[in-house]
Amino acid sequence: MAIPGVLQQFGHDPKPLLRRVGLSLKQLGNPETIVPLATIGRLLALCAEVCDCPHFGLLVGQQVPATALGVLGYTIQNASDVDTALSNLIRYRGLNDRGAFITLERDGVLARLQYSIINHNVAGADQICDCAIAIGCNILRALCGRNWSPTEVLLAHSRPGDRTPFDKFFRCQVRFGAVSSGLVFNRRWLEKSPPGADPLVYNQMLREARQLHHNEPADTDEILILLRTLLRGGLCKQKEVATLLGINRRTLGRQLLSAGTTFRSEVEAMRFSQARHLLADATLNTKQVAFTLGYADVSAFSHAFKRWSGMSPVQWRKSQEVHSL
């Protein structure tokens, strides 16, 4: 909804550009309109090209306040503390964005709020992430105060020719070429109470968010993609994964059964895939592979690998050597 205004700042009529991706001003101005993330990506990439502005997505994100998220935005702003607010953002993100997922990781004294697009090959992915991280920063400034700044900003794309717009907006160190995009900040901010938070408004908005979320049909393909992405990241507990997906454990189980799989099967498949990848590295011995995968000893790993492949890790390695001859 902020895109037309930013285009006009560059002196461009938004109508013809919107038409090129199959949209109109009326559609973009209607909060009920559902636009595929791929379409938004193409539009942001087109706008960046036409305006000769590599940080166009950042400019759009800067214009989006927390309240632009509707019911979810007001739920966030009226939460008892930042931790609760971000938990609701993660759980109900599908009300506003079903093309990506959000995670909050805690590591020592730091917390990391991450935004990850499900389909990394979508056009304009860099622009989308810049936009989303800017919105995330706006949300945290609404919760912690206008002068709030993260400790570090991570962006999963190469450094632009001019980084000044990023430094000016985030007011902290911005690291380009990161593994994933996100905001890093001190964990103590999670305990802060948002200014002006109203518990009555919070409870009302939370009920509406839950109802809207309940009415959203679960997309099994999306669930599987998200699940496998989280498993690759090292999460292996069903309850934790379900929470990050914004559903409960039983719902996750039902969704996976309808897709002909189970949580345990997905974990086993991911471990088998990782094991084969590591065993293909001749510089690693079996003990190192077992340790990397989190096994207490080699025998436990060997037993699991034989269950997956029908042969021991040593036998599998020899079979690969024969195939490569």
Description:
There is one protein chain. The chain is of the alpha+beta class and 325 residues long. It has 3 domains: 60-191, no CATH class; 217-261; 264-324, Arc Repressor Mutant, subunit A (Orthogonal Bundle). It is built from 17 helices and 5 strands. A 5-stranded mixed sheet has the order 1-2-5-3-4, with helices on one face. The radius of gyration is 22 Å and the shape is globular. The chain starts with a helix and ends with a helix. 31% of the residues are buried.
State the helix count.
Answer: 17
How many structurally independent domains? Answer: 3
Portion of residues in beta strands equals 5-15%
Note the overall shape.
Answer: globular
Task: Please describe the biggest sheet, giving its number of strands, its sense, and whether it closes into a barrel.
Answer: 5 strands, mixed
Note the run of SSEs as H and E.
Answer: HHHHHHHEEHEHEEHHHHHHHH
Estimated structural class: alpha+beta
Average pLDDT number: 88
Terminal CA distance reads 58 Å
Secondary structure elements and their pairing?
Elements lengths: L2 H7 L4 H7 L4 H5 L7 H14 L5 H7 L8 H7 L4 H10 L8 E8 L2 E8 L7 H20 L7 E4 L8 H7 L2 E4 L4 E6 L12 H17 L4 H13 L5 H8 L3 H10 L4 H17 L6 H7 L5 H12 L3 H12 L1
Parallel strand pairs: 3-4
Antiparallel strand pairs: 1-2, 2-5, 3-5
Helix pairs in contact: 5-8, 6-7, 6-10, 15-16
